[in-house]
Specification:
The protein is an alpha+beta fold. Helices cover 60% and strands 12% of the residues. The strands form 3 sheets. A 4-stranded mixed sheet has the order 5-6-8-7, covered by helices on one side. A two-stranded antiparallel ribbon has the order 1-2. A two-stranded antiparallel sheet has the order 3-4. Helix 2 links the parallel strand 5 and strand 6. The two termini are 35 Å apart.
Length: 308
């Protein structure tokens, strides 16, 4: 941590010097304006707003790597906001369709060049035009339709496709959050604080978790499931609507009540697992538990908010 001394300037101001390295790295010069944000005991100084990063290029070698390993590296480059990603190796031609499927799961990324030994992907998205709050609402809409379709045995494919879209938006939310930590100017564009962004990112993560569990539970219930399991799943579908209403209204009193009431689903699942020890029932119960815990976490974000 760098320490700077405060110098008196006139009758109404104090000044501190800015580190030369920081000024140069942000492309600032004498006479430029900077932003000063006061947050509790901190004073945050940031440079002029930049909604786009300087071009950056990530090179990923596919040699000797499994598809799962490649997927992890591609996702990491995406979240770190590289403007271009190259995947190269002698085996690229053989796994090209798989790589393209991975790229399809990344909002804003498009294949711009392809050869027998490489695939080049470019970022075509302006992150300043997409806020995490809007992503949360889009994920919520998708989840509501997933929950509705999950009650219909012939709509399992629809549930699965919507879950993929929820996953895409969740990954994009991680990307936006990472961009904000590196470029505070985006906060002013979005009109959010760091805490707001953090909460929205965590809620997006929990919505992704709910989507995964809805998909798996509906699939398993289609194969096997007693009436007790179906009843809890149906009740959780209704509970989700209540939870998101509380999240949007920031009703703390309702959040405390619902969080306590939602905990009852965990106890109900514990009792059911004692009576249903087969593999399929155990998996369904695990999914129901996952849905309950994710909803409780969303409610806690309301309980921990600073507003009354």
């Amino acid at each position: 941590m760098d320490v700077r001394k405060i110098v008196s300037f006139g009758n109404s101001s104090f000044v501190i010097s800015l580190p030369k390295k920081w000024v140069i790295s942000h492309g600032l010069k004498k006479g430029d304006s900077v932003y000063v944000d006061e947050r509790n005991s901190e004073l945050i100084v940031s440079g002029a707003e930049k909604t786009k990063k300087a071009p950056s290029h990530a090179v990923i070698s596919a040699e000797g790597k499994s598809l799962a390993e490649l997927k992890t590296e591609i996702f990491a480059a995406y979240v770190n906001n590289y403007s271009m990603v190259s995947i190269s190796g002698g085996n690229v031609k053989d796994i090209s369709p798989d790589i393209k499927r991975i790229i399809h799961g990344l909002v804003g990324m498009e294949v711009v060049e392809e050869t027998a030994s490489s695939i080049v992907v470019k970022d075509l998205m302006d992150l300043s035009e997409v806020s995490i709050d809007s992503l949360v609402r889009r994920m919520d809409i998708l989840l509501k339709s997933m929950l509705e379709d999950s009650a219909q045995p012939d709509r399992k494919e629809s549930v699965s496709e919507r879950d993929k879209e929820v996953n895409r938006l969740a990954l994009l939310s991680a990307r936006i959050f990472k961009a904000v930590t590196e470029n505070p100017g985006l906060l002013r564009i979005f009109g959010n604080s760091y805490w707001d962004m953090y909460i929205a990112r965590q809620v997006a993560f929990q919505l992704e978790h709910i989507g995964d569990n809805v998909k798996r539970a509906s699939r398993q219930l289609g194969r096997k499931g007693n009436e007790d399991l179906r009843r809890i799943f149906s009740q959780l579908r209704s509970r989700y609507l209540e939870v998101m209403k509380v999240y949007y209204t920031k009703d703390k009193e309702a959040a405390y009540r619902l969080e306590s009431d939602t905990r009852k689903f965990l106890h109900a699942c514990d009792k059911l697992i004692e009576k249903n020890r087969d593999v399929t029932s155990t998996r369904i119960i695990d999914n129901l538990n996952g849905m309950s815990k994710a909803m409780m976490y969303i409610l806690r974000t309301v309980m921990e908010s600073g507003s009354a």
